[in-house]
Each structure stands twice: as C-alpha cells, then as structure tokens.
C-alpha cells in the first residue's frame, strides 16, 4: 500500500536557494518538482516577497544557485526559472532516491514543508534510515495511506475530524465561545495540551488544503514506522 508523508525541515538543511529561503517575509512555492531520479532538478519557483531586490541579491550570492531569470511578475509574486549548482537540492534528492516522489514543496518563515509519495510502505521506512544516515533533521507532520475508501474532508485524520465536529457542536467556535478549551478537553477525555495541538494541526491541514491544494483524495492516516 502506498503512503504520503508530510515533513518539515529548516531551510538551511535544504541546499536549494537557502539564502533566499531564509529571508524574512518570503514565501516560496515549487512549481515543477523532481522525481526519484538524481538527474532531475527543481527549475521553477514562485516567490512572494515585498523586496525583490533583496531576493535577487540573495539568489546571486547563494552558492546553490548557478543562475536564474524572471519569467513572470505579478504584483508581489514572481516566477523564477532556476539553474542549480551540482550539489543543490541534495536533501530533496535524498528523499527521492529513497523511493519517494516529491509532490509538493513550500518554504515559509525559513522552513520547508515537503510532501512525498511512496508507492510502497517499505520505501517509506527506508526514507527514515536514509535521512538518519545523512543527519537530516526531519519533523514528520503526518503520514497517510492511499485508500479506495472516502478519506476525511480535506485530508483530516479521523481524530481531527471528530475533534472539529465536537468543538463545533459544543460551541467552541461560537462568538462568544460556549465552551473553553479545558472544558472541551474534559468532554473528550484528553489533556488540553493534546486538544490544542490536535486542533492546531487540523486547522493547518484545512488551510493548507484550501490555499495550496496539497491533500490527496482518499487518504487516511497511517501509523509511523515502529522504530520512530
């Protein structure tokens, strides 16, 4: 059974325009993604920023960037065509050589969010080993198995969906609120810290799906490998 994993890592750990990725108030979306093969590159980036002079300066000084040109400019967004240095994007390629296909990648506030599709669960486990050997500090946000069954709306896990429904039914989203976070946690028999984190992840999933369309239909949450 195939699986999709969403991971985060600092921009400094991805040799992919790392200087511009670390600029404040800059958002980068990868338009064209690499496949598993090590010869592929990520040539197109949408960059949103207030100061494109700083962006261009950072790209010119970035050792991972061989060259670039602007092929589209729209208000606060530009589409850049990139040429990477030989060792650029090695972290992305490592994920690919482990058997995965990078489907989406985005950087916000100096952190990359990367979605990788693994056709086989064994490949997913291998990715953990490869990342550990390469000292890549991955933070796993979610893992979903591909399924023919209807998934949760917008990629929510069962727990997240049930929590949102309970929060809505008990008036957590009413103005003013009818139930506090602590009281709702008691009703759900979980700690308020766990509830807060579950709601945060659910909200993030919904916003990401709405803005970026990253969620695949028919996805259900899968357990992480037992050695993690």
Automatic annotation (TrEMBL):
One Pfam entry name: HTH_10
Start and end residues of each Bacterioopsin transcriptional activator GAF and HTH associated domain: 19-134
Coiled coil: none
Keywords: Transcription, Transcription regulation
Name by which UniProt lists this protein: Helix-turn-helix domain-containing protein
Domain of life of the native organism: Archaea
InterPro entries assigned: BAT_GAF/HTH-assoc, HTH_bacterioopsin
HTH bat-type domain: residues covered: 156-207
PANTHER family xrefs: DIMETHYL SULFOXIDE REDUCTASE TRANSCRIPTIONAL ACTIVATOR (PTHR34236:SF1)
Signal peptide: none
């Amino acid at each position: 059974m195939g699986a999709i994993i969403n991971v985060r890592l600092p921009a400094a750990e991805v040799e992919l325009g790392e200087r511009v990725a670390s600029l404040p108030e800059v958002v980068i979306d990868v338009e064209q993604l690499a496949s598993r093969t090590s010869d592929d590159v990520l040539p197109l980036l949408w960059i949103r920023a207030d100061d494109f002079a700083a962006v261009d300066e950072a790209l010119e000084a970035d050792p991972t960037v061989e060259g670039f040109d602007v092929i589209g400019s729209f208000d606060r967004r530009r589409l850049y065509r990139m040429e990477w240095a030989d060792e650029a994007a090695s972290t992305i390629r490592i994920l690919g050589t482990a058997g995965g296909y990078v489907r989406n990648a985005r950087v916000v506030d100096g952190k990359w969010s990367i979605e990788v599709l693994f056709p086989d669960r064994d490949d997913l486990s291998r990715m953990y080993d490869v990342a550990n050997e390469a000292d890549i500090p991955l933070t796993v946000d979610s893992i979903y198995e591909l399924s023919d069954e209807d998934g949760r709306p917008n990629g929510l896990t069962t727990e997240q969906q049930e929590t949102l429904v309970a929060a809505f039914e008990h008036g957590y989203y009413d103005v003013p609120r009818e139930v506090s976070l602590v009281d709702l946690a008691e009703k759900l028999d979980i700690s308020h810290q766990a509830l807060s984190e579950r709601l945060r992840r659910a909200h993030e999933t919904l916003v990401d799906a709405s803005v970026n369309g990253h969620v695949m239909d028919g996805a259900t949450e899968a357990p992480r490998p037992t050695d993690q």
